[in-house]
Write a structure and sequence with these properties.
The structure holds two protein chains of two kinds.
Chain A lengths: L5 E10 L2 E11 L4 E6 L5 H8 L5 E8 L2 E2 L13 E4 L11 H8 L6 H14 L1 H5 L10 H13 L5 E5 L7 H18 L2 E6 L2 H7 L2 E6 L2 E7 H6 L1 H7 L3
Parallel strand pairs in A: 3-8, 3-9, 6-7, 7-8
Antiparallel strand pairs in A: 1-2, 1-4, 4-5, 9-10
Chain B lengths: L2 H26 L9 H26 L3 H20 L2 H18 L2 H26 L8 H18 L3 H23 L4 H21 L1 H4 L12 E6 L5 E6 L3 H23 L2 H11 L1 H6 L4 H27 L9 H14 L4 H17 L7 H15 L12 H4 L3
Helix pairs in contact in B: 1-2, 5-10, 5-13, 5-14, 5-15, 6-7, 6-8, 6-13, 7-13, 10-13, 11-13, 14-15
Chain lengths: 239, 407
């Protein structure tokens, strides 16, 4: 197999004195969809925030394209292609849809490319085009999730980190969003790390999966194998 | 009587009772310890009657009694808007400029004095708006930069004879440096904590000004600061230029008018720039902004420094106008006043803040007739305005055109 594009080695992280990650190691290879599943508080979001440098790793290292990034400032990572869609969408509520998308391309200077990518996002999510002059906060939950994903696409990610895109959305919308995530992965060869509570959906989309429990990786396998694993079926698929 | 109207009158009664409780200690307790009701009741009945009339009108409006008049008003307003839009915008700008330029010719010294104060506060308000309105950082010590600007000009002109025009950029630069010094340790904090720390820093600056006798002459202040001067040509005996001091308040008005226009243009351009959008993103969600590749710390520091620049400019003008500075004007209450203008006018809205400064400086002047109670009336007016228009007098428009403009 090729070199991993993103790699965590024994990464720990703390909130004050509480240890949130207890030595996470994982590998993500170019072009694949990897999912991280686990219960509430298992450290899934913290893992993504540590990759992006928002939460500082207290030990271990995060490598991106072979380079250690765990000591770098978080604001340089999007320009290098590592972009996150954070949990709970976190769009800018009082900025318009257009402005939100522009913020996704904040580090870019190529006006023409930005305009093309905005058209691309509007093609992917036509509802965003209709509402481009509306403040982001006035969109529905599903539309906000689309905006958050669109905003990330505006930065032309090489690796896209998605944190619970299904959170609080109607099943039909969730399916639509997962279809689009799949198309992003297929068409742009974007590597995707998907954190999900909805293990069934995530494992059906992903090629490999990691299972997190209280800050540690307890299982790692092909997505298909995880789907058939009786322990996983019992713990995360409600059987 | 419907339930709704009963509720309206109940609210009215409760409000009046509350008003009486507030009013009586102010007017009914005499200095010699005796208690009276005459004066309180005299004021109270008038207010109660006026409020009752307002409630009746409001009830009638809710019932739709004024719908006919409302429609008429709406058509009139639409016609007016059409009339305004017929005249091109640049004519309005010229009229506004002509009004501003001819203002000193049409008013007396008092009117000019108030106008100068309003313009100073417009500069301060717009500067604070960069920090609070755009970047969303609550700064309760903003007036410190005003003080830094004032002392910069005072010290440099008195000790080294530097001209006002040279000191303006120096005051702005020093205020920006002060902003960075204050911002560097504080900007790691968020929300309430930042507010408290800025409050502390504002006080530190004032206390330094008060106690550093060798440099600032302490509470006695610095006197005989030269006013701004320009060189005017003179033909006799041969063509040469002589310095002309802009002593009169009329000249001061034009100087601060220029500074205010500069501030408005600069803040407007900042607002619509890429940096302005990043500031707004930080205000909305700092972590998300960081995930978009915004260097939040640097940009917050820049917001602080840019805000301080306008405070420094206004400060230099302050020193040149009064030709005297001491630490007294740079207290917390002034910071609060400027913040009130920004919030009252509308966070992030330039016309709103101009109106806010006008309202907060002009209102107390209007209420001067009330003497003792003018601050009460002022506070009441502020409360009512925040209740009726919580987003400010002129709320900031969402600037969705920013990205559209480029298309």
């Amino acid at each position: 197999m090729a070199e991993p594009i993103l790699e965590m080695q024994g990464v720990t992280a703390h909130y004050g004195r509480i240890q949130a990650l207890k030595g996470i190691s994982l590998k993500v290879f170019p072009g694949e969809i990897v999912t991280i599943i686990g219960a509430n508080g298992a450290g899934k979001s913290t893992t993504l925030m540590t990759i992006c440098g928002i939460v500082r790793a207290t030990a271990g290292e995060v490598r991106y394209r072979g380079e250690v990034i765990s000591s770098q400032s978080p604001d340089v990572l999007p320009a290098r292609g590592l972009i996150q869609v954070p949990e709970g969408r976190r769009i800018f509520p009082r900025l318009t849809v257009s402005e939100n998308l522009d913020m996704g391309a904040f580090f870019r200077k190529d006006e023409d490319g930005i305009r093309r990518d905005r058209d691309l996002v509007f093609e992917l999510f036509p509802v965003l085009k209709e509402r481009r002059r509306q403040p982001g906060g006035t969109l529905s939950g599903g539309e906000q999730q689309m905006l958050a994903i669109g905003r990330a696409i505006m930065g032309r990610p090489t690796v896209l980190l998605l944190d619970e895109p299904s959170l609080g959305l109607a099943p039909l919308i969730v399916q639509q969003i997962f279809r689009i995530v799949k198309s992003i992965s297929e068409e742009n060869k974007t590597t995707i790390v998907l954190v999900e509570q909805n293990a069934n959906l995530a494992l059906n989309l992903a090629s490999r999966g990691y299972v997190l429990e209280t800050g540690s990786v307890v299982l790692e396998d092909d997505a298909r194998a995880l789907l058939e694993n009786p322990d996983i079926r019992k713990a995360y698929l409600g059987e | 009587m419907t339930r709704e109207s009963r509720r309206a009158w109940l609210t009215f009664a409760v409000a009046l009772g509350w008003f009486f409780l507030l009013l009586w200690p102010l007017t009914g307790i005499k200095a010699d310890g005796s208690l009276t009701f005459d004066q309180t009741l005299a004021i109270f009945w008038r207010v109660a009657a006026a409020a009752a009339v307002l409630v009746v009108f409001w009830r009638l409006k809710r019932k739709g009694s004024f719908d006919g008049a409302g429609r008429g008003l709406a058509t009139a307003r639409a016609a007016l808007a059409r009339g305004i839009s017929v005249v091109p915008a640049w004519i309005w700008w010229i009229l506004l400029a002509a009004g501003a330029l001819s203002y000193p010719l049409l008013t007396n010294r008092y009117g000019q004095d108030v106008a100068v104060t309003v313009l100073v506060y417009i500069c301060l308000g717009l500067g604070l708006n960069v920090v609070v309105g755009l970047a969303g950082l609550l700064d309760l010590g903003y007036i410190a930069f005003y003080g830094v600007g004032a002392y910069t000009y005072a010290l440099l002109s008195v000790n080294y004879g530097l001209s006002f025009w040279l000191c303006l950029p120096l005051a702005a630069a020093l205020a920006a440096i002060a902003g960075c010094i204050i911002g560097y340790p504080t900007l790691r904090m968020r929300g309430d904590y930042l507010a408290i720390v800025t409050l502390g820093f504002g006080e530190i600056v004032r206390i330094i000004l008060n106690n550093w006798m060798e440099l600032t002459n302490g509470p006695k202040g610095i006197i005989s600061i030269p006013p701004p001067s320009i060189y005017v040509p003179e033909l006799e005996p041969t063509l040469h230029f002589v310095p002309f001091e802009l002593r009169k308040i009329t000249y001061a008005y034009y100087v601060i008018l220029g500074l205010a226009v500069f501030t408005v243009v600069a803040v407007h351009r900042l607002n619509f720039s890429r940096i302005g959008r990043a500031w707004e993103a930080i205000r909305e969600d700092e972590t998300a902004a960081e995930l978009m590749g915004v260097n939040t710390f640097l940009l917050k520091l820049l917001a602080y420094a840019m805000g301080a620049v306008f405070g420094g400019l206004a400060g230099a003008f302050y020193a040149a106008r009064y030709r005297f500075v001491n630490p007294d004007p740079f207290t917390f209450i002034e910071s609060a006043m400027v913040l009130a203008m920004v919030v009252l006018g509308g966070l992030g809205s330039i016309p709103g803040i101009i109106l806010g400064a006008l309202a907060l400086i002009a209102l107390p002047e209007v209420f001067r007739g009330f003497e003792l109670y003018r601050m009460l009336a002022f506070g009441g007016a502020m409360t009512v305005m925040m209740l009726v228009r919580p987003a400010g007098l002129i709320p900031a428009k969402r600037m969705g055109q920013r990205s559209e403009e480029r298309d």
